[in-house]
Amino acid sequence: MSLFEQQWQTYRTVLEHDAIEHRAAAAATGEELQTWLAQRPAHRPPPTLVDLGCGDLARMADLFRTLPLGAYTGLDLAASVLPLAASAMGQAPFPCRWQQGDLLHWAERPNPSADGSAPERVDVIHSAFAIHHLSDSQKIQFLRGARQRIEADGLLLWVDVFQDEDDTRETYLDRYIDRVRHWHALDTLQIKTIVEHIHVCDWPAQRGTIETIAAQEGWRWRWAWRGSQGSEALAVLQPCSLKNASTP
Q: Quick one: DSSP state of residue 17?
């Protein structure tokens, strides 16, 4: 079994046993999208959605396929998952594009619009359990870049793990890793692999702090869902005026 297959098997086990509440997060995401779509003026063209860190779409394809989208883009750092995502999406009634890439790079290096006069903008940005891999400074860069890539009435749906306001990274990791060690669906090697990944790769944003930073970068923040364990959550961000913008 290849390294990718081993890691993906572990991921699938976590997903199938709903260890980090993917089902509830997906349901909350669907509710937010349906509410936003219902409020969207009828004369507007069908919205475009980009899914940053799309994975294999095992949990989200059924939702996305039913949305009245103009286009969908699935982006993931692992090229190996994109054919799986395309298969899960199936025959969607809108164009789908699959792109290997980094979400921070996507935010900071936008494609030009058709006439080359401005960055290409999207209506909805969705990202689930991916942004916490960015450092604190990279999260600021991401929020700044994504603000330039989204339409004025757009929607950023950020599903992820977050630290409590009084957490340090160390206290958060200790608590989360203790939780992982009680995931009985995983074997010892799988748990060891996840723990090592968390130590090296997980840098969850701290509630409160990230809300303040988002406001400074031109986002209005709202918590739409929080998981039963307290770490997983859905944040809904919409563009607003910059708090740190100078007054003319």
A: T
Which residues, listed in sequence order, are joined to residue 98 by a DSSP beta bridge?
A: 74
CA distances from 75 to 53, 72, 78 (A): 6, 10, 9
Amino acid (one-letter) located at 248:
P
CA distance 66 to 89: 10
| Three-class secondary structure of residue 35 per DSSP | helix
Look at residue 11 in the predicted model and tell me its pLDDT.
80
Tokens of 66: 């039913």
Assess whether pLDDT exceeds 90 at residue 245.
no
pLDDT value of residue 5: 56
Contact 176, 146 (CB under 8 A): no
* pLDDT tens for each residue of 230-243: 999 999 999 997 65
Q: Contact, 206 vs 188, CB < 8 A?
A: no
- In the block, tokens 């206290």 appear at 171
Task: For residue 173, report the phi and psi dihedrals to the nearest 5 degrees.
Answer: -65, -40
With bands split at pLDDT 50, 70 and 90, how would you rate the model's confidence at 248? Answer: very low
Structure tokens belonging to residue 103? 């979400």
Let me know: does 238 contact 218? Beta carbons within 8 Å: no
Whole-number Å distance between alpha carbons of 219 and 221: 6
The answer to whether the CB of 222 falls within 8 A of the CB of 234 is no
User: What is the rounded CA–CA span in Å between residue 234 and residue 237?
Assistant: 10
DSSP per position, 111-177:
PB-TTSSSB--EEEEEEES-GGGS-HHHHHHHHHHHHHHEEEEEEEEEEEEEE-TT--HHHHHHHHH
